[in-house]
Amino acid sequence: MEPEVERYRKPTRVLHWVHAGAFSVLFLTGLVLFIPGLGFLAEGGWTRLLHRIAAAAFVIAPAIYVPLNWTATLRGIKDAFNWGREDIGWALAAPRYYFFCDEGAMPPQDHMNTGQKMWWLLVLILSGVFLVTGLVMWLFKTVAPPALLQVMVLLHDVAFIGSAPMLFVHIYLSAIHPLMRPARAGAWSSMARGRVSRSYARSHHARWYARVYGTGEPAREKETEVLSR
Amino acid sequence: MAEKAILFDATRCIACRACQVACKQWNGLSGESTRNLGTYENPPDLSAQTWVKMRFVESTEGGAPAWTFVRQACMHCTDAACVRVCPTKALAHHELGMVTYDPSECSGCGYCVDFCPFHTPRAGRNLVSGMGKMAKCTMCTSPGLDRIGAGYQPACVKTCPTGALSFADRADLVAEGTARVQALRAQGRANASLYGENELDGLHVLYVLNDSPEAFGLPANPRVPATAMAWKGALQPVGWALGGLAIVGLALNFVIARRAKFSQEAAAKRRK
Amino acid sequence: MTNHWTDIGNADVILIMGSNAAENHPISFHWVTKAMEKGATLIHVDPRFTRTSARANIWAPIRSGTDIAFLGGMIKYIVEDIEKNPQNYNMEYLREYTNAGWLIDAKYGFNDGLFSGYDAASRSYKDKTSWQYQKDAKGIPVQDKTFSDPSCVFQLLKRHYARYDMNTVSRVTGTPQASLLKVYQAFAASGRPDRAGTILYAMGTTQHTVGSQNVRAYSVIQLLLANIGIAGGGINALRGESNVQGATDHALLYQYIPGYLPTPSTAQPTLAKYLEAITPKTSDPRSGNWKQHQPKYMVSMLKAWYGSAATKDNEFAYQLIPKVQAGANYSFIALFEAMEKGTIKGALVWGQNPAVGGPNGNAERKALEKLDWLVDVDLWETETAAFWKRPGADPKTIDTEVFLLPAAASYEKEGSVTNSGRLAQWRYKAIEPPGEAEDDLWIVSHLMDTVRALYAGEGGPNAAAVTKVTWDYGGVPDPSKVAKEINGYDLATGKLVANFLSLKDDGSTSCGNWLFSGSHTESGNMMARRDPKDNSTIGLYSNWAWCWPVNRRIIYNRASVDLNGNPFDPKRPVVKWDAANKKWTGDVIDGFGTTGPTLYPFIMLADGVGHLFGVGGMADGPFPEHYEPWETPARNLLSSTQLNPAAKVWRPQEQGTPDKYPYVGTTYRVTEHWQAGAMTRNLPWLAELMPEMFVEIGEELASAKGIRSGDRVVVESARGQVSAVAVVTKRLMPLTVDGRVTYTVGLPWHYGYMGLIKGDSANLLTPYIGDANTTIPEYKAFLVNVRRA
Question: Is the pTM of this model over 0.95?
Fold first, then answer.
């Protein structure tokens, strides 16, 4: 077994999966209202009830996580909004990298690669739109002027349309794309078990690996040596 | 089949509210707990229990009082915003033209409430769970209470003592309404109008008015809201396109990337 | 009604006055709308602009209580127009069918509000001998068909209403002169022989101290316009309850026994004296004088009541039936005053709610406390049944034993309902009444059975009156049996009579109510007929149910044809004389069959003609004269006699004056509620429409008082106060009366302290005073003050 490094702590992973589960429910129950043929599934209001339950989870989960993981959150925010010239390099290399698996073309990436940073930005923005429009539709249906509610519905749908491709890309890249595999050592494992193989870490997030492990300085993340059998 | 409609003649209405009571009796709706807010008008608004109501509008004409009575209920539009936005098809067009509604299919989403240009549908729903049903006049085509299907007139029409309400083929009522409006104009009511002839591609509730629609509190130019058109007309196709594009793109990526990976691995193997 | 509901659709002009027909008789408006579709003009005269006014072509405001001034002005207008433009009127009708040209006794006079023969001490016209015709040697009234003799009715009419010029009328009524003229012109236009004008009225006309004369004014106008007896015409009372016509026909009024025969009094100690009093005489061969037959009806009725115990030898049991004290007043107000004094110890309150519907509500509720026992028969525990626990009452101080007998509703029992058009329609039982509720027939029958058994066992005053009455309805009384008894029998053969022509005064026939003779014959129950085919062109529907008398749909219909029997209006023929076959076609002819067109049309009057001048019949004068309501902000501008001189004043100490109560208060009904409110205030679908007691106040007055719509206000009179929600409206206009601005506020009287929704009763404000003839209370005009609560 190859030695591994920890990518994500347990609280982070819990948050991810709760959020992923909630979002999936939100997505599917929303899809029912989007695809005309599936509309009948909404009869009786049960899918809407599920949507609300999932929405509550979607909002409550980070609300619990953030205060309990303040340092990690701050660091995550720092990572996510740390834009620089190397992001252009990622963009230039991305077509060759993702389509032709040309790892050599990709400059070294940090804990969060550019794609992941873009992802974070979109998640925050779209979640914000979902949150605001959703809250208005949930709580203020009888008091808000119809024109406002109409705009809320429209924007909620815009966010939905934005997040659907993002969902597809996210699942694809984390579980299916050849460069992120094998599952037990790659992207999937990073969020399922928290750890990836050292070679994966070195090839996908070289800058982060070098900073944390390469210089022999005390690691921020624990290195887990799994001795070969 | 020839489309049907209701004709409301405001010049014959005596605001007796028999229509309000007949609708509640037929549809098994309850009386609401109300207060007198300084007017004869009650209940103060349409609701899940009140599908039709009369509005009382006081004014003066030539120094003498005037009192106008306006029916407020679903207008049964041909281009119905509610039908456009209803995700479950609980709201749909009946073959006779009215907008019918099956509560068992309603999801309680309330989009119809948001988008109706006449603000007619009302949803009574639980604030927490969101469960609830929309309610509106179905021109007596509600499942299990279908008067039209049984060959009867809507309950409100049947009970109206003065014939202010009539129910017949829409084309005939348009002709009748037009003739009455012409007669009113000949009597000096210059702004008399037949409301509903062409609005929203034609309403199935037509109003003979002895003044302009605005004088009766009716929107002069009701439209399906632009947001609904944007949502269902523009956004929906964009959504399909983006989603489709994403999936196609990812599939393409998978095919190409996997082949690239295999050939890399094969090359690496050959080098060993 | 002289005419009937469907007939309203035949009118060219409809005057709705003293009525809010659209709100309180909405189904009637089906016919008003039909008439208007054909081009009819609707005129509405009312203190308020109501839902009726909203549909009217002409609306004129009027101060409540000034109808005679308004109508007197119309009479003056018509009389002058008849002189100027006789071609626009039916002069033949006026000459031949009214007493316009008949001469009145020279001793008749009118001076400053009083007619000749007035006795101030008794507040009555003790001597009406001057209100009679001059007669020739044969006893036939003298006529001047040129209408020029100064003693002729037409000239007397003209002189009497000379004071009612439009300027004066406007100052009294508050109606702008232009509005008066518009109304007068529009209605007078129905005076042409080919035009029909109808008057629809209700409590706004009758509930005044001059209420009966208000209706008399309609008679004068309709006779001048030749509108009586024709299709689309007539004087049409919109009765206030679905079967109150039936109730009055069967004499639930103190001054009548069934069939509008007068209640026997101590002034008629024998049957002979009574029969003489009810048999008018005439020597005019052209007068049908139908009341000459009343002895047959009275005797037949006594036979129906006492059967074999009523014989020629015992005056057909006349001595057994109770008599009223001659001259005494047994009206509604009188009953409650008697309760208050302890004279009346027990009361059966049957399908009525005086605690809400009676005038001077506080006094009536207090009077109930004096009763030893009260039996309340109703569908609900009403305010009257619960008077002893009303807000402010202490049950411990009230000794009345109250029995509440639950009664069946109209769909839970079988029987006839007689509507305003005299049409008796038989109805069937649709469902069983709930719980222990029973129909009225069952209740009254068993009650009487029990009372009879007690009298039979214990005796008592005039016991025979109770024990000898024919009372064989059994355990489950059959309404058909009662209907047949009402129709009448030939006692020799045991067969039902065909109509009242068969009734005799020798005891060989019986009949419970001559008016309804013909309603349930050997051919069957005529009231149950439902043939919707109309064989006329004027909506008679003569085979639908049955109306009295003898299914005559339009009464006085002989007045619709000329002296040759040809209809004045061929487009709307009611009857027509077929000279060849010596018979009448069309509606059932007045006065019967073979008599050709020479019979005077007004067969119920001894002289046979319509009374422009009322010869001796009314308590307060042969011509309607304007007097102010008992409580009024204005002085009488037509004479110095302020109040109707023949109206009884019951509690002078309770009269409100304008200094403390400056505004005119009036009460009325609304579509959404029914009478005293038990039926509608207990029904959620109706309760939600009008959930609270309210008062309508005009914008100007409200603004002056700082009252906004929706505010809670207090309305007070000299007798009580009510709390109500203010409905501030444009529809109550200030009126300029005698140069001063007068405000009216209006209150619906439907609310009380019981039921699903409650409210204060408007009748806590209304006065203890009534019409001079009927004592119907003056609910429509009194004085109040208004303030924010």
Answer: no
